[in-house]
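LOG
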Amino acid sequence: MGFLTNDPDIVESMSLMPRTVGNELSGEKVTFTKTTKDTACQSLEFVTILDPEDGIFPHRHTYLTEVFEILEGELTLRLNRETLHLKAGDQQSSVVVPPYVTHSFWNHTDQVTRFKVTMSPAGDFEPFIRIGYGLENDQLTFNYKRFPVRGKYPLFRRALRALESILGVVPKSPLMVGILGKLGGTYAPVIPIVLQKMMIHLLAAVAVRLGKDRDVEKYFLKNGTKEGVELGATYGTQPNPQQHTADRSVEVDDR
């Protein structure tokens, strides 16, 4: 039992996918500057373009260390009960978020924000991102149309955008929630993680039993499917980067 990315064939196939993905309606984009393959599963690096009054709701990761670095504009980052305002060019333009720390981020300005995120280890976060945006673009999440916002009510606009940020990433199908939850190692605050894991494991197991895991392979595998790959059979434990490092030592040294 382990990560999908413990399978070198999956890593290779995923590396052939476009490096830029995003939400076609909101304009949010993510560009992978260092993919899972590039780092031999040690980390994942991507640049996010975030529109004004857009962001991500509070969440926490169980095994991932996340580093934010602001490249352009400003970003409000909340860690547990501490709020940080990061600005490109400032002395503190980056911050490290350890595992299990509840965090959220938001572009509170009227300008686009561009920032880099580094996740360590890579785990299955790359397929998690690719599948998430794929579901959004195929209108398989609750929010596939931005709410019309009129008038000069900034608090109201921010409340609607916050609602969009939550609905936009939540699949309509509970089975897809199970698959994404397994891949991302990402959990809501307050609710005990053990209870969330039990629910996610159950949903993911049902999804695999019904063959629904095959429906998402088109989002992260070059040919849409890989013979013999069972998403449910590779979920669970920490990744094994050494497995890829040994296989790809020459390629890594050449970079």
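LOG (cont.) second protein
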Amino acid sequence: MIDEEKELTVLPLYSPVSGLLKPLEKLKDPVFSQKIVGDGIAIVPCDSRIYSPCDGYAAYIHEARHAMFIKTAYDFDVLLHVGIDTLELKGRGFDLHVRQDEKIRRGQLLWEVDLAVLKSEGKPSDVIICIPGFEGLKTVDLIAVGRKVEAVNDMILRCVFKREAGKYA
């Protein structure tokens, strides 16, 4: 009998920004609220600095600098997306601190965002973290919703996935 617990791997994801946790379903963008791009959570930020929620590398940074994918050591992506409809800002208000393909560590500063620019343009500043479709992913557990979190220190998501033979050792 295979012990399924030994076949599973857990990756904790930590809050990329200090603020208040908000369920994706409460977002005003159906791509996120209907979880089309994956399960996750949003944070209403109270700080302009956004940090990496895990180790990995910056696999893709959108040219508008509002979104990036972090490829984890377990070969799945974590999407960080700042704001709703912020693509329209064409990079204005986003100061990146990493380059595409750069190795990053949990807690490393990724962005500084000028929240006043987002507000003046009528863009919600929610910081979204989600896990796009990953075949081996079994669950994405939300640790707590509706509470304040501190960047880097508070775990907000727990990703549980099936380990493939010979991988992730």
